[in-house]
Design goal:
By secondary structure, the chain is of the alpha/beta class. About 30% of the residues lie in helices and about 25% in strands. It has helices at about 5-15, 40-55, 85-100, 105, 125-140, 150-155, 185-195, 240-245, 310-320, 370-385, 400, and strands at about 35-40, 60-65, 80, 120, 145-150, 170-175, 180, 200, 205-215, 215-220, 225-230, 230-235, 255-265, 275, 280-285, 290-300, 330-340, 350, 355-360. The strands form 4 sheets. An 8-stranded mixed beta sheet has the order 5-6-4-14-15-16-13-17. Strands 8-2-1-12-19-18 form a 6-stranded mixed beta sheet. A 3-stranded antiparallel beta sheet has the order 9-10-11. β10 (about 215-220) and β11 (about 225-230) form a beta hairpin. α2 packs parallel to α7 (about 185-195), α2 crosses α10 (about 370-385) and α3 (about 85-100) crosses α10. The longest helix is centred in the N-terminal third of the chain and has 16 residues, at about 125-140. About 50% of the residues are buried.
C-alpha cells in the first residue's frame, strides 16, 4: 500500500488520481487469529496498530459491526488534552497527548492535529482555587499549564462575555498543547496503518456470542461465522456491558447519551477550545468553519444514539449566555454518542475475570482524547498479559478494594461524571 506525501498528492493530481488504492483491504475472516479486537473505532484500531507496531503481533483481526468510524469515533467533539488533576489520570493522558503529537508521522496519515490550546474558565473563588490546584499538579508532573486572569481569557477569546451577570468569568486554566483532531481521520489513519502492518479489518462483522471454555476465552461468534483466538480485547465503548454479559460477567458501567452539535459554517471566530465550568458547555471551531459544541449527559441510560430536546435547549442556553453572538447562528446538525460511564469517572484498561479476555472501557467523556494512549496500553496488556504502569490503576478490582480514581470528587454515581 502506497504511502501519502505532498509529492504523491501532486503526482496523482496530474494523472487524474487514478493511482490511489483503498486505505485498507476488505479481507475475508480467517478461522483463527492470535488476537481478536472487538470494536473498529479509534480505541480498537489503535490497539491493533500498537499490537503490530510495538509488539510485532500482526495476526490480528479487528471486528466492527458496521463501517469503520461510524460509532462513537464519529460522534464526539474532537478535543485533545491532558489537563487532569490526579496522577493516575494526568500521567496516562499526558502519554496519550505525546502520542498525539507524533501520530501523523507514526500513521503516515493526516489526522489534522491542531494544538490551538484548551481553556477551562472559572467563575468564582472556589473554581479558581480548584484550577490553581489542578494547574500546580500538572506543572509538578511536567505538563504545561498557564493560569489566566479575566483579561487573558478575553484576549484569547474576544467574543466571550466575561462580565455577564449570570456567569462572570474570573479567569481560566490554559493548556497550550491541547487542541483538536479530526475524529474520522483518526479512525481512517489507524485503519490504514494497521492494515499496512498485516491486520485484518473485518467490517459488518457483529459479535453475537463469546466462546468461553474452562474459564478462558477461545474466540467469538459473529454474523460472519465463528472466529477463534486465545486472546480477545474489547473496545466497544457503551456496548461493553453487552459483550461482557455474553462472556458471563458484569461490569460497573452504565451507558448514557451525550449530545453534540455543530453550527453552520463561519469565518474564523474561535481559535481555541473553551469550556465553561458554570454550565458544562464546551466549544471549538472546526477547520470547515462550523462551531462544534456540547454539554452534559441527557441523564438516562440508553443505547439510542439520539438525544432529547431538553438537553439541547440547556446546551444552547449555556452557549448563548457565555457567547451572545451564538444567538444569531443556526444549528446545522446534532448527534448523540453512547458514553460508557464508570462509577468514579475513570476508565478501565485491564484483564477481566475470563482468562485471555481484556477490555478498554469506561471512558465517560474522555474517550477521544485517550485514543492513542488507550490503544497503546491495551496492546501492552494483551501482549504481555499484565498492565503497564500507566494503566495499572485502571482495573475492575479498584471498587472492591476501595481505591477509586474520582477525578471530579462526585462519588460513585455514573451519571455525575
Amino acid at each position: 500500500m502506497a504511502g501519502y506525501s505532498g509529492l504523491r498528492i501532486f503526482s496523482e493530481g496530474l494523472r487524474g488520481n487514478s493511482g490511489w488504492r483503498p486505505a485498507w483491504r476488505k479481507p475475508e475472516p480467517k478461522r483463527e487469529y492470535d488476537v481478536i479486537v472487538v470494536g473498529g473505532g479509534g480505541h480498537g484500531l489503535a490497539t491493533a496498530f500498537y499490537l503490530a507496531e510495538v509488539h510485532g503481533i500482526t495476526n490480528v483481526a479487528v471486528l466492527e459491526k458496521g463501517p469503520i468510524g461510524l460509532g462513537n469515533t464519529g460522534r464526539n467533539t474532537t478535543i485533545v488534552r491532558s489537563n487532569y488533576l490526579l496522577p493516575q489520570n494526568h500521567h496516562f493522558y499526558e502519554h496519550s497527548l505525546k502520542l498525539w503529537e507524533g501520530l501523523e508521522q507514526s500513521l503516515n496519515y493526516n489526522v489534522m492535529m491542531s494544538q490551538r490550546g484548551v481553556i477551562n474558565v472559572f467563575h468564582n473563588d472556589a473554581q479558581r482555587n480548584a484550577a490553581i490546584r489542578r494547574g500546580n499538579a500538572m506543572r509538578l508532573a511536567g505538563i504545561d499549564a498557564v493560569l489566566l486572569d479575566g483579561a487573558g481569557v478575553k484576549a484569547m477569546c474576544p467574543l466571550l462575555d466575561i462580565s455577564n451577570g449570570r456567569f462572570p468569568v474570573m479567569g481560566g486554566l490554559l493548556q497550550p498543547r491541547g487542541g483538536t483532531a479530526r475524529h474520522d481521520a483518526v479512525a481512517w489513519g489507524f485503519a490504514h496503518a494497521a492494515d499496512a502492518r498485516g491486520v485484518d479489518i473485518l467490517e459488518h462483522c457483529e459479535v453475537t456470542g463469546m466462546i468461553v471454555e474452562g474459564g478462558a476465552i477461545r474466540g467469538v461468534r459473529t454474523t460472519r461465522g465463528e472466529i477463534r483466538a486465545p486472546k480477545v480485547g474489547l473496545a466497544v465503548a457503551g456496548s461493553t456491558s453487552l459483550l461482557t454479559e455474553m462472556a458471563g460477567f458484569r461490569v460497573p458501567i452504565e451507558s448514557h447519551l451525550l449530545q453534540a452539535f455543530v453550527s453552520e459554517g463561519l469565518k474564523p471566530m474561535i481559535d481555541c477550545v473553551v469550556t465553561f465550568g458554570a454550565g458544562h458547555f464546551y466549544i471549538s471551531q472546526s477547520d470547515k468553519g462550523g462551531l462544534v459544541f456540547g454539554g452534559g449527559l441527557d441523564g438516562y441510560p440508553s443505547y439510542g444514539q439520539r438525544g432529547t430536546l431538553r438537553e439541547a435547549e440547556h446546551v444552547y442556553a449555556a452557549g448563548v449566555s457565555m457567547i451572545p453572538a451564538l444567538g444569531r447562528l443556526r444549528g446545522l446538525r446534532s448527534w448523540a454518542g453512547i458514553m460508557d460511564m464508570s462509577p468514579d469517572g475513570s476508565p478501565f484498561i485491564c484483564r477481566t475475570p475470563v482468562r485471555g479476555l481484556y477490555m478498554t472501557a469506561g471512558w465517560c467523556y474522555g474517550g477521544f482524547k485517550a485514543t492513542p494512549g488507550s490503544g497503546w496500553c491495551h496492546a501492552w496488556t494483551i501482549a504481555r498479559d499484565e498492565p503497564h504502569a500507566l494503566n495499572a490503576a485502571f482495573t475492575l478490582d479498584r471498587f472492591r478494594e476501595g481505591r477509586m480514581i474520582d477525578e471530579r470528587g462526585n462519588g460513585p454515581f455514573h451519571w455525575m461524571h
